[in-house]
Amino acid sequence: MNIKSLLLGSAAALIAVSGARAADAVVVAEPEPAEYVKICDVYGAGYFYIPGTETCLRIGGYVREDIGGGDVESFDGALAVDHQDGSINHTWQKNARFTLKTWTGQETELGTLKTYTEYRMNFGNNYGDYGSSTLAGGTEPNPNAGTAGWRAGNKSSALEFAWIQLGGLRVGADESAFDTFIGYAGNVINDTIVPYGGFQTNVIQYYFDAGNGLSAVVSLEEGSGSDTIDSYVPHVVGGLKWTQGWGAITGVVAYDSNYEEVAGKVRLDVNVSNELSLFAMVGYGSDNNLNDPTNNIDALGRGFYKLWGGNWAVWGGGTYKFNEKTSFNLQASYDDWKDIGLAANVAYTVVPGFTITAEADWQRVGQGAIDNDSVWVSATKKNNVGGILRFQRDF
């Protein structure tokens, strides 16, 4: 056998083996096409399509740390029992909050279908019993002294918003149109030193946009807490707004079905320049059927809407933007009971999404104040000073 015959034979054998193996070849399945998340820019930044649907979803929220001291508003007279001698010490009030928000949007033949939810979880020191009612001016031991002092721990977690809106119709948990439609009282943290209305409630609302900056709202509301409606008759809020490039004029009127009382507010917003914006708001409410105790400004009986003292109240203030990172915010308030509130802060955006705000607050309690240095209910002192430092990361 010569070399040529050997090479030809080997080649024939390789072809035969290759053919046999080809008959048993493994067929690899084609990969299924990946379904990538699609960006939805119809409703603004951050939305994406839920895979397999026409619904756009946005997920966001914030993480916040508040450090408060003094005697004003929600950071009111935080106290602690001294571990060594049992005396009462003033202390910081701290609160960490995680808030999760969702938005959805979808176009339908009846208009835009939207939802909004917001859930808040808190950790911090909270009000508790002090072991003896002598701190409140009494002499008997406190039978509820199970958790003395402002102790840190998990606090409230609450569903703040959960509403559905189709076109102009909104139903669900929201804040009262008495506040949301006319606007909150400034860009300060403690904007309710003189309160301007109730907030969280179940609503059935209808918003109407007439064009040319004219809009309106009608809202049927349940109230909340002790101001929840006491029959089938809802609280009712109506509002009218005219918005232009220079600012806006807004008015709202509310009927409190529990007391059969009426309250209203009118507001003027003015955009003075790109840097400066101002607002002024006045409220008036009837109180013939309300029972306002004169010895406790936080007592029940003001109704859901007219929370200020007496018949009337005024709020005013503004925002000045030094640059794109730094702004100064101011609010002043006064009511018929001669309650006075001042709040001012500086907000600084360190990097996009992270803002530090330092605020100082002063309150002068008018009618019903106890002019002493009681550490038990500091809100009844004639003059109260406090402040808060807030760190907030929005996402």
TrEMBL record:
Query: Where is this protein found?
Result: Cell outer membrane
Q: Which GO terms describe its cellular component?
A: cell outer membrane; pore complex
List this protein's GO terms for biological process: monoatomic ion transport
Signal peptide coordinates: 1-22
GO: which molecular function terms? porin activity
Q: Which UniProt keywords apply?
A: Cell outer membrane, Ion transport, Membrane, Porin, Signal, Transmembrane, Transmembrane beta strand, Transport
Q: How does it sit in the membrane?
A: Multi-pass membrane protein
Q: Which family does it belong to?
A: Belongs to the alphaproteobacteria porin family.
Name of the protein: Porin
Organism annotation: Mesorhizobium jarvisii
